[in-house]
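On clarity, I found the account of how folds are encoded harder to follow than it need be. Since the whole study asks how a given chain folds, the encoding of that fold should be made plain. For illustration, here is how one protein appears when written out as sequence plus structure tokens:

:::
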Amino acid sequence: MVRFRYSCYMTKKQQAHNETGIAHVGLVLLAVVLLTVGLVGYRVYSKNNANKASVNDHPVTQVNKSANSLGDPNSSDPTTKGKALSGGQCTGKGSKPLTHAPMDMKDVVTIQPYGLMVDGHVTPVDHEYYYPAINSAPDSYPVYADADGTIVSIGSETSTKWAVVISHNSCTFFSWYNLMTSLSKNITDKMPAGWGPNNQGGISIAVKSGDLLGYVGGQSLDYAVWNTEKTLKGLLNPVAYNNSEPGKINTVPPLDYFTQAVRSQILPKYIRTAQPLDGTLAYDVDGQAVGTWFLAGTNGYAGSNDPSHPSGYWSGHLSLAYNYLDPAAMEFSIGDYQGQPKQFAVKSGPNWTKITPSSGIAKVELAQLNMVNSSGTVWTGQFDKGVTLQPGTTMATALLQLTGKQTMKVEVFPGKTPSQVSGFDSNAKTYDRGQTAHMITSTTAH
């Protein structure tokens, strides 16, 4: 995300974009093709809900690489961390009411919550999606500042993927926008001389609630709110995330901060019906399988630069979580399934919370992931509050065994049903919670 990322992370994100692109235009044609091979349920769902993933939709902004006068991205002190998130361009602390919707609701088809897992978004995503019409042209719809504040970072991965971070007159409270197809002239006219996508620091542009930030069209507007005074307890080892996406562990529900007037505007566009309506991205419980895991030795969320690992920082990620629209349904999301990121519906097996160090080896049946709307047909991203996850054809079987409170043995057997799998073999891998992860202090190595 246009987060305050390390410069080595930008290379990974750009590589992801270059490899897969944005898959919104031509969606109908895509659905027809996929139906012919029996994969429409998962693939249409994936492409509709992404411009994402092995897409990864996050251009990059800088963050301090170590503690200094501009703050520390791994600090547990809210203000110190906020200074790092803003490149030192903030003062004060505390949250503020958000007094303006990010878009005009007449332009929005759906608002989709935190927690989607799709393609290279192996772990539940930490941003919401404001979807206009996917077949719209770039720059079709205006995007607004959600409250008074100061733009402290601007990032661009391409000429139609712009991201902005706003500090709301505070070192502890921020809004993050991504995938704007252009910035407003009011913003570009105030950018410092010599600014470029690789030197995003030094940005300080005052905005008022409702000011025009830019435009979006043909893809989602990605949106999140960060509060460094709040830390997600469901991400067990903060350094494993702070070394790449420091805002992630401080992601909070926007509905907690929007004024009632704004809530009344945006809630009719929310597609999730289960509480919390903004979704969930952090599931970790110490001593249980539920939540996010990392291949041992890959430095947490940042991933590994080891050339023997598959392409993509996400290749070492694993999430045992729940569907973002149907939270009763379990998903198995892995960064390296036959060399590619992949998500499955769980067809049979114990609940993730029941797999513990004392429960032994768990056998989990993995199936095609189909999203079905309230009428029982494949959901293609339109507004529908009755979307559920329905497991399809069995695709693989996974064995899981917690060998400690924060270590797990994992093996996936492609094409095998549970009855065809008897135990681990030499292909089993060890995952952990990122407890040995470290901050990145170089732009070339982890």
Q: What stands out?
A: The CA atoms of residues 299 and 437 lie 4 Å apart.
